[in-house]
Design brief:
By secondary structure, the chain is mostly helical. It has helices spanning 15-21, 24-27, 31-47, 53-71, 84-96, 109-145, 165-190, 209-215, 225-230, 233-259, 287-310, 325-345, 353-358, 366-375, 380-397, 406-412, 420-423, 426-431, 441-470, and strands at 150-155, 158-164, 192-193, 220-221, 267-268, 350-351. The structure holds arginine.
Amino acid sequence: MKYMWEGRFKELIDNDVIKYTKSIDIDKKLAFYDIEGSIVHAKMLFKVGLITKKEKEEILNGLKKIKKEIIENKFKFLSSDEDIHTAIERRLTELIGKTGEKLHTARSRNDQIVLDEKLYLRDEIIDLLKKITELQIVFLDKSQTYFGEIISAYTHLKQSQVILISHYFNAFIEKLERDKERFLEVYKRINILPLGVGACAGTSLPIDRKYMAKLLNFNEVSRNSLDTVSDRDFLIETAFCCILTLIHLSVFSQDIIIWNMDEINFINLPDKFCTGSSLMPHKKNPDVFELIRGKTSTSIGLFTGLLTLMKGLSLSYNRDMQEDKKPIFEIIEILKTTIEILKKIIPGITFNIETIRKNISSYTLSTDIAEYLVKKGVSFRNAHKIVGNIVNYCIEKKKSFFSLTLEEFKTFSPFFKDDVFQILSFEKSVSLKLSEGGTSPENVKKEIDGWKKKLKKFLDRILVLEKEVSILKK
Ligand code: ARG
């Protein structure tokens, strides 16, 4: 078996070493990106006079053939193919002979792999931005459907204050919007060309990196060769963005699981999105949402692996870094499939408005009563105490706020007047939350209208990004 470094070696490499060090089974996923990078590299080698026009044409035709073989599932990976880079170079040389050996001029697999990963992540991030936006639209639809309906918000899983159901959904649109901002931020750093830094020091050959950056639609070229081959920040950052998005979706899932509990019964989940029990005939379980929690944990584990992988590695490239692919591929896959399944399930979730309403405690209005007293001139601390006393009284007498008389109110404070009854309604409570970001229908309606426009505009922006990267894929 021949290896690209055989000149230095007096004996064949041990088979177990070959098996242990190869990564082809995982990095073959990067095949098209590797070819994309090689095409641009060959064009550059010709431009600067390192290969002839004929050689360039041969290389490009060979690469095209390889791409076709991969698409048609005809590409044969050999047991001697260590990684995707060597597999493609090996096949190229088989197809076009000696000229194929010129492709690796002024290139190392150390810069090649960074390029492949960056091209891959650019595509995946654009796809994720699109998917997240579509999920935001699904949340927005729910927000519109239930506009006007009220539910209790929870802090510490205890009823706190009433809100619009729409406000709940809008909260997730916000979280996902920040997730998108984070992805776009990382995208900027991904969009810097690593190719051309060689193994770690650059090259004495007259290459043109800016030309390659232009062809690959990268905004700039990296500045330091040592940093470039050792940099996986962009990959860790992308993984983190995915994890945080998953964490948000796990929070939503947890609420769905709770709202779906038999004794709570705030929502209905369509049968086709639930699973049953192999033993208990009556069960209908929200397994998808439980698995979103579970898969989020798996992703966090993989992410921790990535961080640990990079910790304390001496500068610059170290083979450990080969282990970065599996976790990032898996994390991205988990996020993508999670978003897709949520996009399918959420539209089918319905709320049992009556049950929700019946379960809202009148005590969720306690802050409104305190604020009523503040408006009458009572200090907030004092108002808090007065209302606390009323709550205690009600608990003892098994009363709700709604059954109190003005006389009873007055025994706690002379500031209570007849108008206190005007604020004793859930509708009134939400309508008064006019402060910016508050849950009043006025605010929430504005938010809904704003999101409608903003999300549509974002989908247009994605089209532009898609076009930018698709130029390469002809
Ligand atoms: N397969 C390697 C990786 O994924 C790239 C090859 C670099 N190998 C080397 N011996 N310098 O990181």
